[in-house]
Write a structure and sequence with these properties.
411 residues; alpha/beta; seven-stranded mixed beta sheet; 15 helices; 12 strands; 16% strand
């Protein structure tokens, strides 16, 4: 039989365990009326372009909301968590935000691998999280398969399979019909988000009658792409569809330009950044990438937000920027409507929201998977042109200029 002293220590131990793993000491699920401020945690690698886009967007949205009076008079506090783009660092950052900073909600994250590592911690801490830079379908499939456990996770970002369908549409409508090119090379990094994307793109293009003359999924550690582009040229490719996020974008683009290979255009995350022109010494001239956001009238709020962001941070928004900016506003809107910081209320509000943001006039989430609703997005195709200009060349609805072939290309 335990002594009274042993029982007391046992009770204290249980209390401490509850406190550390998700008890009332956490910020999530606080009483709104008693909270002096609203606390938002922003997750992302602080030294990487997508992470910088996340944190900058969150800062700007929070400043605007606070300047407009906050949420029922309560100001928002923003806390930054550096994931370094690594799963283990992401877990550490999330724990700090939840256990030390006691945030009410979370936004951000670049890399599906990091987000998949974080996802199991959300039910543990009962905290709502809108991911704004992750594309793997597995994330929202988890919600659909086990809603009770993963209901805290939402994704305000276009998943990889939807990106692939848009990519196939671009190549069919623009590359084939407008430019008349039929021989396609697919050059994709081998990463979690591309495992279904790249093979599906090949299948869809071939089904549409295009000739995929080259297909490769390369290791993200590859730095020398000269042999790859030599092979692509030898295959007679007329267009190169690059799918790159984690890989070495600068060596890839430089090797492309030096090889004088076919025009290249699809997805290059690093190339979305306005500094990429300087980083490559202008060798990205002619390259195309989608950016999810552009200085174009995606909604009547987009251009004004873009210009303010550029003035404030000295660089243009990247793909994570628009998603994060709108996510912060959506969370603020739901908390304002519900007058609540309880996760159950925030989840209910997000499942029902229809929000006019800078990316789409009717943003919302699927109530079963918590993925972005189908069709509530666009993916403007942006080309690097002379002088470092970034010009939207497709779709026609959002064009800001005409497509210009690379100066060496003579089909």
């Amino acid at each position: 039989m335990r002594s009274r002293k042993e029982v007391i220590f046992l009770i204290l131990g249980v209390f401490l365990a509850v406190w550390v793993t998700g008890g009332s000491a956490l910020g999530a699920n606080r009483d709104f009326d008693k909270a002096e401020t609203i606390r938002i945690g922003s997750l992302g690698p602080v030294q990487m372009v997508p992470g910088i886009g996340i944190h900058n967007a969150a800062k700007m949205a929070v400043e605007e909301i606070n300047a407009a009076g906050g949420i029922h008079g309560k100001k928002i506090e923003l806390f930054i968590g550096d994931t370094e783009g690594k799963p283990e660092k992401g877990i550490t950052a999330l724990k700090k935000l939840v256990l030390e900073d006691k945030v009410d909600v979370l936004v951000g994250c670049y890399s599906s691998g990091v987000a998949l590592a974080l996802q199991p911690y959300l039910p543990k801490y009962k905290i709502v999280y809108i991911a704004t830079g992750t594309a793997s379908p597995a994330l929202t499939n988890n919600v659909k398969k086990n809603y009770k456990k993963y209901k805290y996770f939402f994704r305000h970002m276009i998943n990889a399979l939807r990106q692939e369908k848009w990519a196939a549409k671009f190549i069919q409508e623009f590359v084939k019909r407008q430019l008349g090119y039929n021989k396609i090379a697919i050059l994709s990094e081998n990463a979690k988000w591309t495992h279904e994307y790249a093979p599906a793109l090949k299948k869809d293009l071939e089904a549409a009658g295009l000739d995929v003359v080259f297909f490769e999924m390369f290791d993200v550690d590859v730095k020398d792409f000269s042999p790859t582009f030599a092979t692509i040229k030898s295959k007679g490719a007329q267009w190169i569809a690059q799918i790159v996020s984690h890989a070495a974008s600068i060596p890839l683009v430089k090797a492309w330009q030096e090889s004088k290979a076919a025009p290249m255009g699809l997805c290059n995350v690093a190339s979305m950044d306005s500094k990429f022109w300087e980083m490559t010494g202008g060798k990205c001239l002619g390259e195309i990438t989608y950016n999810f956001i552009a200085r174009a009238p995606l909604t009547d709020r987009t251009v004004a937000m873009w210009d303010k962001y550029v003035k404030k941070f000295g660089t243009n928004p990247v793909y994570t920027t628009g998603f994060t900016y709108d996510a912060v506003y959506m969370l603020a809107e739901v908390i304002r409507q519900k007058k609540s910081l309880k996760s159950v209320d925030i989840i209910d509000g997000l499942e029902k929201i229809s929000y006019k943001g800078v990316l789409h006039p009717e943003t919302g989430f699927d109530p079963q998977s918590h993925d972005l609703l189908e069709g509530r997005y666009v993916m403007p195709m942006v080309q690097w042109q002379a002088g470092g200009k970034q010009v939207v060349v497709w779709p026609d609805k959002f064009k800001t200029g005409d497509y210009v072939p690379p100066p060496w290309w003579k089909p």
